[in-house]
Amino acid sequence: MSNSVGYKGAVLKVTSNEYMETHGPIVQDRIALGAIRLSNTLNSIFDNKD
Questions:
Q1: Domain segments of the chain: what residues?
Q2: What is the pLDDT of residues 1-50, one digit of tens each?
Q3: For tag attachment on the chain, is the N or C end more exposed, with fewer CB atoms within 10 Å?
Q4: 3-class DSSP assignment, residue 14
């Protein structure tokens, strides 16, 4: 796996392979949960109740 990047505050941080191997599944779960929350929010905004 190549270096992954992320931001901590305003500083770019490179994530190690070891971190991603250990915490990758948690990161993927959190991204999925965020996508579900975003979907629900967008659906409530754009729901046509005509």
A1: 22-50
A2: 445 566 667 776 777 788 778 888 998 999 999 999 999 999 999 987 65
A3: C
A4: strand
The conformational region for residue 22 under phi > 0 = left, psi -120 to 50 = alpha, else beta, is alpha
pTM over 0.85: no
Structure letter (DSSP) for residue 10: T
Predicted confidence at residue 28, as pLDDT, reads 92
Residues comprising the chain, all counted: 50
Rounded CA gap, 5 and 45, in Å?
A: 32
Q: Which residues is 11 bridged to in the sheet?
A: 8
Helices (H), the chain: 17-46
Instruction: Report the candidate in 40, 41, 6, 1 with the shortest Cα–Cα distance to residue 22.
Output: 1
